[in-house]
Design a protein that fits this description.
The structure holds three protein chains of three kinds.
Chain A (H helix, E strand, L loop, with lengths): L2 H22 L8 H6 L13 H7 L2 H34 L3 H11 L6 H12 L4 H8 L12 H25 L3 H9 L4 H12 L1 H17 L2 H6 L7 H10 L4 H31 L6
Chain B lengths: L5 E12 L2 E12 L3 E5 L6 H9 L6 E6 L2 E2 L10 E4 L11 H11 L4 H14 L15 H13 L5 E5 L7 H18 L2 E6 L2 H7 L2 E6 L2 E6 L1 H6 L4 H6 L4 E8 L2 E4 L3 E8 L7 E5 L4 E4 L5 E10 L3 E8 L2 E8 L7 E13 L2 E3 L5 E2 L3
Parallel strand pairs in B: 3-8, 3-9, 6-7, 7-8, 13-19
Antiparallel strand pairs in B: 1-2, 1-4, 4-5, 9-10, 11-12, 11-14, 12-13, 13-21, 14-19, 15-19, 16-17, 16-19, 17-18, 19-20
Helix pairs in contact in B: 2-3, 2-4, 3-4
Chain C lengths: L3 H18 L19 H36 L17 H8 L1 H34 L5 H13 L2 H14 L6 H10 L2 H14 L2 H9 L4 H30 L2 H7 L6 H11 L2 H33 L5
Helix pairs in contact in C: 2-13, 3-13, 4-7, 4-8, 4-10, 6-11, 7-11, 8-10, 9-10, 10-13, 12-13
Classes of the chains: A mainly alpha, B alpha+beta, C mainly alpha.
The complex binds adenosine-5'-triphosphate (ATP) and magnesium ion (MG).
Chain lengths: 287, 357, 313
C-alpha cells in the first residue's frame, strides 16, 4: 500500500535528487545528459568526482551576499513567525470572545491565497505608490522608505505566507493542554505569565519546533515571494538558482545552489526529527 | 461557636452559568479541621460550588469567607486553598518531585527547604519511592497521592477535592479514601470533598451537605442524615427508603388499600395524609400474624443479613432481616420507626411519638 | 506537619512576589481564564494599558494580513489612481474586460481548473492507502520512509525541477499533460500522506475491530467506519492539494511550456508585461476558488486537522 507514493517519490524526486548531486560533482551521464548538453560553464569529469562546480559558485561574491541574505531572512522570518504565532495562539487559548475568533479567522487567510497572488499583492501594498507609503505620506512621513523590491519586503511576505501554519500548529498544541493543568498551576500560586512559562511553554515544545523548522525550510527554498517582491541582488538563493538556470544557462551552478540549500534544510530538519523521536520515547504521556 | 472556628463559610452564594442558576443561594459553613462532603446527583452543582471556593469561578451573588476573611473575588493563586482535581491534573513534563515542588518554587523558598518539605509531604502520602518518576510512569493510585501531596505541600487553609477517587478501582477507592481521611485528621486541615458516592461520603466525613438543584437539602453528620433525612429527596438519595402515602391511626399507620401497619415510633403526628418513610431495617418481619400480612416476592442474600422484597396489599416494600429468619411465603410486618413528611419536608416532634397513644 | 507557622509568613512573601512579577503577555491584553476575578485598581489601570496595546496589535494584524489583499482588490476596479491619493479617482471594469477578452488568459483559466481536480484525485488515490498503512502497520523501514518523505520536502523545488527535467526528457513527458500532472502531484504527496495518516491514527482500533466482529470485511470496514471518521482530515488534505496544484507555477512552466500555461504561470508574465490593473483582476480571479474552499473547510482546518498531520508518529 505504501508502494505507489513511495514509487512516485523515488522516481520523480529521489532519483532526480541523486542525479542532481551526481551532476554537481561533475557526472553528466544518464538523466543529466540532456541538461548537460545545453548548459554552459560546466565542470565535468568522466571518472571520479570534482568539486570544481562548488568551488566556482562558492567563490562568487554575489552568491556570498545571496547566501547571507538567505540566512538572515530565514532567521528573522522564523523568529517572528514563532513569536507572533505563539502570541496569537496563546491569546486564542486563554480567551473566547468575538475578538479572538476574528483574530483566528484573520490569521489563516493566507493559507488560502495562492502564493503568486500573495506576493504580488504584498509588492503592490508596499510599493512606491502602495498603501503603506500613501498612509505614511498622509501621516506626514513624506520620506518614508519604499519597501517594495527590498529584502524587508521579502521578509514581510515570507512572514505573511507562514503565519497561518504557525498559528494552526501552535493553537492545536496549546488546545491539547487540558484546562485543569492550567488551573492546578494557578491554584499553586502561579500568575498567568508564570503558567505560560512553566506549563504551556514546556508542553508546547514540539509544535514550536515544527513551526520553526518548517518555516525555516520553507523560506530557504522559497522562490515566488523573493522573486516577485525582492531586489535584483542580493536576493534569496531561490531566485538566484532560477537566474543561473534561466538567464545564465548554467544548470550545474543552479544545482550546486540547490544542494547547498538542501544541506542547510536537512540540518534544520534534523532538529525536527530529533524532537519528534525524543517525545516518541517519552510517549505514554498522560492525557 | 466563634467566628474563627469556621474555616470556610459560604454565605448566600449563587452562580449563573449558560443562563441557568446552577448554584442557588447556597449556605455552607465548615469548621476548622472539619471534613465536609458535598454529596449529590450528577449536575447538581457540586463542582461549580467547589470551583467558587477555589477561585476558579466568581460567585454572582454572595460571599466566600476563609477563616473569617472575605476571599470572594481573589484569584486562585492568591487564596489559601488547594485543589485536588478529578483526573489529578499532574503536569506531564515534570517529575513527581517537580510537580510537588512547583508551588514552593513560586514562593522562592531556598532549595534545601523545598527539598525538605517536598520529601516530608511525599513521606506523608507514602510515596518516597517515586520521587523522580514522571506522572505517566506511575499507577493511578500513586498519581492520586501525588496530586494530594501537591495540594498539601502549600499548607493551605482549605483543601478541596473534586471526586478524587473516581478514577480508581473499587478496592483502591476504599483504601485511598481512608488514607485521605487519616492524613486529613492528622494535619487537621479544613476540607471539602465532592462526591456522588454516598458510601464514600458517609464513611469519611464529619458532616455531609446533600445537594440538589444547586441548593443544600440537608447538612448534617452521617448518622442524623441517615436516621433523619430532612427531605424526601435526601431520604431517597441516602440509603434505601420505603415511602408511602398514609394517615396516622391509633397504633400505626394506614396505607392505601386499608392496610394498617403497626408502628413503634413516629417522627410526628397529626391529621391528614402524610408521606411516610421507613428504612428497610426498621421493617419488622415475623412469622406470626401480629402485624399486617405480606407476601414474600423475593429473597436476596446479603451475607450476614438478607433483603426481602415484600408485597402488602398494593404496596411493595423492602426489609432487611437477619439471615436466621427461615424462608417463608407469607409473613407479618410492622414498622419499628417511621418518618413523616409533608410537602417533602420532615416533620419531627421534639421526642419521638409512640404510635399507640 | 508542624510547619504551619512558616506557611503563614510564606503567604506574605508570595503576595509580594506575585505583585512584582507583573502581567505582560507579548503586548497582548492580560490573558484571562474565562472567569477571572476582579482585580484591584492598580491592576485595572494596567489592564487598560494592555487593552490598548491589544487593540493596536489587532489593528496592525488586520492591516498586515488583510491589507495587501484588500488593496489589490481595490486596484482591480480602479481607473486613474495617483500617489499619494488614498483612493482612486474613478472606477472602471476595463481590467476585467481585458482579461476575459484575452484568449490566452481564458485558456489558462480553463487549464488551471482542469489540472487541479485531476491532480487532487490522483494524489488521493495514490496517497490514501499509504497513509493508512503508515498509521496502521509497523512495517520495517516505516520511520525511514516517513523521514524520507519529509526530506523530499526540504529539497528546493527549483533545483528539483531542473534535475527532474532530465528524467522527464528521457520518459518523453516534457510538454505533455501527464508530465504537468506529475510535476504538480509531487508537491502534494507529503501532506496528502501525513494529514490522513494522523487522522487514521486518531481512530481507535476498537471501532474497526467492532465492525469486523459483526461480520464486515476489511474493505467494508474501511469504507463504512474508517473513511467516514477520517473524512474531515482527508477533506482538508484534498483542499490543500487542490490549492497546491492550483498554485504551482515553476514546475508547470518548466514541463508544460508551451502547451500548458496555467493561471499562476501566466501570472508571472502578467506581472511583468501587463498593466497593473489586469494583474490585479487576474489575481482576484485566481483567488476565487481558494476563498470558496476556505469558507467551506475553515472549521476543519481550524479544528486542528492540519496541525495533527505534522507530528511524526
Ligand atoms: N460553563 C458552564 N456553562 C453552562 N453550564 C454549565 C457550565 N458549567 C457547568 N454547567 C452546568 O451546571 C450544572 C452543574 O454542573 P457541575 O459540574 O457543578 O455539576 P456536578 O454536581 O459537579 O456534577 P458531576 O457529579 O456530574 O460532576 C450542569 O448541569 C452543567 O451542565
Ligand atoms: Mg463535578
Amino acid at each position: 500500500m505504501v508502494l505507489p507514493p513511495v514509487a512516485v517519490i523515488a522516481v520523480f524526486i529521489g532519483f532526480p535528487v541523486v542525479a542532481a548531486i551526481a551532476y554537481t560533482l561533475g557526472r553528466a551521464g544518464g538523466p543529466n545528459s540532456v541538461v548537460a548538453s545545453l548548459g554552459q560553464r560546466q565542470f565535468i569529469v568522466q571518472k571520479g568526482v570534482t568539486f570544481d562546480a562548488y568551488r566556482d559558485i562558492l567563490s562568487n561574491p554575489t552568491i556570498h551576499r545571496d547566501l547571507w541574505a538567505t540566512v538572515w531572512v530565514t532567521i528573522v522570518v522564523t523568529l517572528v513567525v514563532v513569536a507572533v504565532s505563539w502570541a496569537i495562539a496563546l491569546y486564542l487559548r486563554l480567551t473566547d470572545s468575538w475578538l479572538a475568533r476574528t483574530i483566528s479567522a484573520l490569521s489563516v487567510v493566507p493559507l488560502f491565497i495562492p502564493v503568486v497572488i500573495a506576493s504580488y499583492a504584498i509588492l503592490v501594498f508596499y510599493a512606491s505608490d502602495g498603501f503603506i507609503k500613501t498612509v505614511a505620506y498622509h501621516l506626514g512621513f513624506h520620506g518614508f522608505p519604499t519597501l517594495g523590491y527590498t529584502l524587508t519586503c521579502v521578509t514581510l511576505g515570507e512572514i505573511w505566507v507562514n503565519i497561518p501554519f504557525g498559528v494552526l500548529m501552535m493553537s492545536s498544541g496549546l488546545n491539547g493542554v487540558p484546562n485543569n493543568l492550567i488551573e492546578a498551576a494557578r491554584d499553586s500560586g502561579a500568575t498567568m505569565p508564570r503558567v505560560v512559562r512553566s506549563i504551556l511553554l514546556p508542553m508546547n515544545v514540539i509544535p514550536t519546533v515544527i513551526v520553526a523548522t518548517f518555516t525555516a525550510i520553507y523560506v530557504l527554498g522559497s522562490f515566488t515571494v523573493p522573486y516577485l517582491t525582492g531586489p535584483t541582488a542580493p536576493n534569496l538563493l531561490g531566485p538566484s538558482m532560477a537566474n543561473f538556470f534561466n538567464s545564465f544557462n548554467q544548470p550545474q551552478q543552479a544545482e550546486v545552489l540547490a544542494i547547498v540549500v538542501f544541506v542547510l534544510a536537512l540540518g534544520i530538519g534534523a532538529v525536527y526529527v530529533w524532537a519528534n523521536v525524543r517525545t516518541g520515547r517519552r510517549s505514554g504521556l498522560q492525557s | 461557636m466563634s467566628a474563627t472556628d469556621i474555616g470556610l463559610d459560604l454565605q448566600h452564594v449563587s452562580k449563573d452559568l449558560g443562563g441557568r442558576t446552577i448554584v442557588d443561594d447556597l449556605q455552607l459553613d465548615v469548621r476548622t479541621g472539619e471534613l465536609t462532603c458535598l454529596l449529590g446527583p450528577s449536575g447538581c452543582g457540586k463542582t461549580t460550588t467547589l470551583r467558587m471556593i477555589g477561585g476558579f469561578l466568581v460567585p454572582d451573588r454572595g460571599r466566600v469567607l476563609i477563616s473569617g476573611q472575605d476571599v470572594t473575588t481573589l484569584s486562585p493563586d492568591k487564596r489559601p486553598t488547594a485543589m485536588v482535581f478529578q483526573n489529578y491534573a499532574l503536569w506531564p513534563h515534570m517529575t513527581v518531585f517537580k510537580n510537588v515542588a512547583f508551588g514552593l518554587r513560586l514562593r522562592k523558598l531556598p532549595k534545601a527547604e523545598v527539598k525538605e518539605r517536598v520529601e516530608g509531604v511525599l513521606d506523608l502520602v507514602g510515596l518516597t519511592h517515586h520521587v523522580h518518576s514522571y506522572p505517566a510512569r506511575i499507577s493511578g493510585g500513586e498519581q492520586q497521592r501525588v496530586a494530594l501531596a501537591r495540594a498539601l505541600v502549600l499548607e493551605p487553609k482549605v483543601l478541596l477535592l473534586d471526586e478524587p477517587l473516581s478514577n480508581l478501582d473499587a478496592k483502591l477507592r476504599v483504601r485511598v479514601r481512608e488514607d485521605i481521611r487519616e492524613i486529613q485528621q492528622r494535619i487537621g486541615i479544613t476540607t471539602v470533598f465532592v462526591t456522588h458516592d454516598q458510601d464514600e461520603a458517609l464513611s469519611i466525613s464529619d458532616r455531609i451537605a446533600v445537594m440538589s438543584g444547586g441548593k443544600v437539602e440537608q447538612y448534617a453528620d452521617a448518622r442524623s442524615l441517615y436516621r433523619e433525612p430532612a427531605t424526601t429527596f435526601v431520604a431517597g438519595f441516602v440509603g434505601t427508603m420505603n415511602t408511602y402515602e398514609a394517615t396516622v391511626v391509633p397504633g400505626g399507620v394506614a396505607l392505601a388499600g386499608d392496610l394498617v401497619v403497626p408502628c413503634g415510633d413516629l417522627s410526628a403526628t397529626g391529621d391528614g395524609v402524610w408521606e411516610v418513610g421507613v428504612r428497610p431495617e426498621d421493617v419488622r418481619v415475623s412469622l406470626d400474624d401480629a402485624g399486617a400480612a405480606a407476601d414474600v416476592l423475593r429473597e436476596v442474600p446479603r451475607g450476614h443479613y438478607k433483603e426481602l422484597v415484600l408485597r402488602a396489599g398494593p404496596h411493595e416494600l423492602r426489609a432487611f432481616v437477619g439471615s436466621d429468619l427461615p424462608p417463608a411465603d407469607r409473613v407479618s410486618i410492622s414498622f419499628a420507626r417511621a418518618l413523616l413528611y409533608r410537602d417533602g419536608v420532615l416533620h419531627r416532634s421534639a421526642t419521638p411519638v409512640p404510635a399507640h397513644s | 506537619m508542624g510547619k504551619r507557622a512558616h506557611g503563614q509568613t510564606l503567604g506574605v512573601a508570595v503576595m509580594s512576589a506575585i505583585e512584582s512579577e507583573g502581567v505582560v503577555l507579548g503586548g497582548l491584553p492580560e490573558a484571562q481564564l474565562p472567569a477571572a476575578p476582579l482585580r484591584p485598581r492598580r491592576a485595572v489601570v494596567r489592564g487598560a494599558a494592555h487593552r490598548i496595546a491589544g487593540v493596536v496589535f489587532i489593528v496592525c494584524l488586520l492591516v498586515f494580513m488583510i491589507g495587501p489583499i484588500a488593496w489589490l482588490a481595490l486596484r482591480a476596479f480602479s481607473g486613474l489612481w495617483q500617489y499619494p491619493q488614498l483612493y482612486p479617482k474613478d472606477w472602471t471594469l476595463s481590467g476585467w474586460r481585458q482579461v476575459f477578452n484575452d484568449p490566452n488568459l481564458r485558456h489558462s483559466m480553463r487549464l488551471s481548473f482542469e489540472f487541479a481536480p485531476i491532480v487532487t484525485a490522483a494524489s488521493t488515490v495514490i496517497c490514501l492507502p499509504a497513509a493508512y498503512a503508515f498509521s496502521r502497520y509497523r512495517f520495517p523501514g516505516r520511520r525511514f520512509l516517513l523521514i524520507s518523505l519529509f526530506a523530499t520536502n526540504a529539497f528546493p523545488k527549483i533545483g528539483l525541477y531542473i534535475s527532474m527535467a532530465g528524467v522527464f526528457y528521457s520518459l518523453n513527458l516534457m510538454g505533455t499533460f501527464l508530465g504537468v500532472v506529475i510535476v504538480q502531484l509531487i508537491g502534494t504527496v507529503v501532506f496528502m500522506t501525513w494529514i490522513p495518516a494522523a487522522a487514521f491514527s486518531a481512530i481507535p482500533r476498537s471501532l474497526e475491530e467492532a465492525a469486523r466482529d459483526v461480520g464486515a470485511g476489511p474493505l467494508r470496514v474501511f469504507f463504512r467506519v474508517t473513511f467516514p471518521l477520517a473524512a474531515p482530515a482527508i477533506l482538508v488534505a484534498m483542499i490543500l492539494s487542490f490549492l497546491a496544484s492550483f498554485d504551482e507555477a515553476q514546475g508547470t512552466f518548466l514541463v508544460g511550456v508551451p502547451n500548458y500555461i496555467t493561471m499562476p504561470t501566466e501570472m508571472y508574465t502578467l506581472v511583468l508585461n501587463y498593466p497593473e490593473q489586469v494583474a490585479a483582476v487576474f489575481s482576484i480571479l485566481l483567488a476565487i476558488p481558494s476563498v470558496v474552499l476556505m469558507a467551506f473547510a475553515r472549521k476543519h482546518v481550524m479544528g486542528g486537522r492540519l496541525a495533527e498531520g505534522f507530528q511524526l508518529r
